Amino acid sequence: MLGGILAGMIIGLPGDAGAQEVTLKLHHLLPPVAHAHKNMLVPWAERVEEGSNGRIKVEIYPSMQLGGRPPQLADQARDGIVDISWTLPGYTPGRFISTEVFELPFMHASAVATTMAINDFVERHSEDFKDYKIIAMHVHAGQAFHSHEPIRTVSDLKGTKIRTPTRTGAWLIEAMGATPIGAPVPKIPEMLSKKIVDSVMIPFEITLPLKVDEMVDYHTILDDPVFSRINTSTFMIVMNRGRYDSLPADLRQVIDDNSGMHIARWLGEIWEAAELPGLKKAAASGEVIKMSSREVAKLRAMVEQPVIDRWIADVAKRGIDGSALVSEARALIQKYSK
User: Fold this and answer.
1) According to the model, what pLDDT value does residue 193 have?
2) Please, which of 16, 51, 205, 228 could form a disulfide with 254 given CB 3.0 to 4.6 Å?
3) What is the Cα 72 distance to its own chain's centre?
4) Domains and CATH numbers, the chain
5) Which pLDDT tens digit goes with each residue over 260-286?
């Protein structure tokens, strides 16, 4: 009798072999050398594993190792093919509508402020994410132009072909008088080396693993005290909802503690810091151009309100008050910029 009681006590000890252990598969598109993999996803996985005392193991599969194409990553998490995906909402146009507001021109201020703002925002606007547990939303430091020819003025953009990953990015490029070419990040080296595009709009951090500095000589940012980049892209780390719901309560809590506003500032700081090495390499191998404040004013007049108005009109067809979302997003970015 005593032996049975002792056995029961041993089995009930936390962290023993009887406690449920979980392996989660996280899939993404970039190589292991990329900033997102080594400086964000791997540390996040380590935080979860440590917080669960080793009961959750996160296996990360970079470079689409589990199959499919980058635009399928959101579906893979939704359908349970993988447990977690890191991807861009914009890779599935028209599905994640509300968060597009943060990609509109002259909206984004800094990776920290905008990342905190978007995580705050989705706590109230999660309708597009009903099939997912949102681990976190984030942005990068913002788009710079990386081009074969120098971009110093608004007129230098006219008639050029520019790569973009999202529909709002395409609208922005069209408003510049240029032609958008849609493609995911892994296609950038081929598009630049074969001169399929004249320039790409990406942050400096991703230029390093893609070796963009070896393909172009010019990199353009904006000479503006608030908007050094014309816009940004939104990203999401999302988990299959059923998989999350199946976890015991204590392991769901570990995921929750490493989600949303709990990690938003950390994520933003990671992406801000990631720009410096890429910017340094670009300056060493080519020319980093600051588009003058006079030209920035021309660019802003050309693209800001027309693109925002186009987005507001588009989402109105879905019964969404885009004007209210624009005001809310701006207020949140301002709040977290202080």
Assistant:
1) 96
2) 51
3) 16
4) 22-140+234-273 (3.40.190.170), 144-231+275-337 (3.40.190.170)
5) 999 999 999 999 999 999 999 999 999
